[in-house]
Amino acid sequence: MSEHGPTPEVESIDDGSAGEQTKGAIRISVVAALGGFLFGYDSAVINGAVAAIERQFQVEPALLGFAVASALLGAAAGAMTAGRVADRFGRLSVMKLAAVLFFVSAFGAGLSQSVGMLVVFRVIGGLGVGFASVIAPAYIAEVAPARIRGRLGSLQQLAIVTGIFTSLIVDFILAMAAGSSHDVLWLGMEAWRWMFIAMFIPAVIYGGLAMTIPESPRFLVGAGRHDEARKVLSTLLHPSKVEATIERIAASLKRDTKPSYKDLRGPALGLLPIVWVGILLSVFQQFVGINVIFYYSNVLWEAVGFSEADSFLFTVITSVTNIVTTLIAIASIDKFGRKPLLLVGSTGMTIALGVMAFVFGTAPVVNGVPQLGAMGPVALVAANVFVVAFGMSWGPVVWVLLGETFPNKIRGAALSLAAAAQWVANWLITVSFPSLKDVSLGLAYGFYFVCALLSLLFVWRLVRETKGMELEEMKG
After folding, report:
1. Positive or negative CA dihedral for 26, 31, 32, 35?
2. DSSP 3-state of 291
């Protein structure tokens, strides 16, 4: 699949029909997107455990931030290697491997006896996140009809935010059942440990369902398994289109050269301009601070005076908001286009983050705790407006653009680089927040505000619209 990028054959699978073939594409896309569910669950499950981990292991802020962000290091490595593994062993093999990694991480993190042990198993889970974050969009792109490619590609983000929501609900239920996240729940183990262990359930479900969907027809043709490819394509295409599609796939594979990072070189600071666009899309998606909300929201609201129970409730409400707005994006992305959604989202994020920076930055601080007073509800509303703006734009749209904006020749290598940049940016934001929070929440949100404003200018000047374009039309 050329590292892990979608390929020209995506468009060959679109015969314009909306019957059983389209239903088949939707069904297997939904199963593939379940990797995003585990991606979201693993990323956000740490939220409910942060305070308990800090208390149990007596962790300093910098080390706490590293522990929370450690999964992202594994995710970057997984994103960089998923494509090569998929090209050699198949897309389904990568999905199954991701499920195994999630399973191991669930029990390893839950049974950790030190911060170092926790970091190791979070990195293992991060590898699964990295695999899932790229294999699902790539697989979906290889079976999705062009007319609904944006919607099916957005299923990845819907699965991610649903996984986030589920993990937060599980965290809330377990913490309330025990009395708090650091109190003992079952078998002499604290609630925070069960938050991690519970991830084995969706890991098993994902691994099992991965066995019910077909291998990518592009991989099958590339491996010389034409009979199997015909069988898969017959569920996605009218029978009269199958042979022609196989011929086009085979012809394209003959034209393809092995992807190389050398192909990304250009005059703009050493890279092609379109590669920088992909990298900056990834970086801005993280630098606006969205994952601070999902990794640290409990700690954030407790830090400004709310109880643990109220903080859990606020986090769950925010997660539900994220799901609803992602559904809005899925319904509108193929109608209004990618760029308009990004512009509206950047505008909303800039306003919301500006309000949060002002509220936190001007609040009096007593014993290290900002006293929001009557401004507390304002900050809570602003946080949810921020999530709405992100959820209907930068959340799902960036995944779609990264899958379709690069020219065929460089798609695999460019996707690899952009995905790695996304995880590195996520890591930087996540690991820095505890220390920034201790200096000033106003400073932290002021930085996210500046990034949101810059993202607006970036989209307006440099991001092009790709709605309705064939993948072969993408230029560097």
Report:
1. positive
2. helix
- Residue 153 CA to residue 343 CA, distance in Å, equals 20
C-alpha to C-alpha distance for 64 and 58, rounded to whole angstroms: 9
b/e sequence 318-352, b meaning 16+ C-beta within 10 Å: bbbbbbebbbebbebbbeebbbbbbbbbbbbbbbb
Instruction: Say what the pTM is.
Output: 0.71
CA distances from 91 to 194, 335, 413 (A): 31, 30, 17
Which residues are CB-contacts of 124 (< 8 A; sequence separation ≥ 6)?
74, 101, 104, 105, 108
Rounded to a whole number of angstroms, the distance between the first and last alpha carbons of the chain is 19
Mean pLDDT of 449-457: 95
The phi and psi torsions of 440 (rounded to 5 degrees) equal: -175, 125
Sign for the pseudo-dihedral over CA of 453, 454, 460, 465: negative
Residue spans per domain, the chain? 9-213+257-473
Average pLDDT over residues 82-104: 84
Q: What does residue 288 show for φ and ψ, rounded to 5 degrees?
A: -75, -5
Q: What is d(CA 350, CA 357) in angstroms, rounded to the nearest whole number?
A: 10
Say which CATH superfamily domain 9-213+257-473 falls into.
MFS general substrate transporter like domains (1.20.1250.20)
Q: Residue-wise over 105-144: b if at least 16 C-beta within 10 A, else e?
A: bbbbbbebeebeebbbbbbbbbbbbbbbbbbbbbbbbbbb
Strand locations in 157-221, DSSP E?
A: 184-186, 189-190
Q: Token pair for residue 228?
A: 């199997």
Query: What region does 183 belong to: left with phi over 0, alpha with psi -120 to 50, or beta?
Result: beta
Q: Which two tokens stand for residue 286?
A: 């993280």
List of E strands, 324-413: 365-366, 369-370
Q: Which two tokens stand for residue 204?
A: 């098993």
Is pLDDT above 80 for 299?
Answer: no
Any idea what DSSP says for residue 185? E
183 DSSP assignment? S
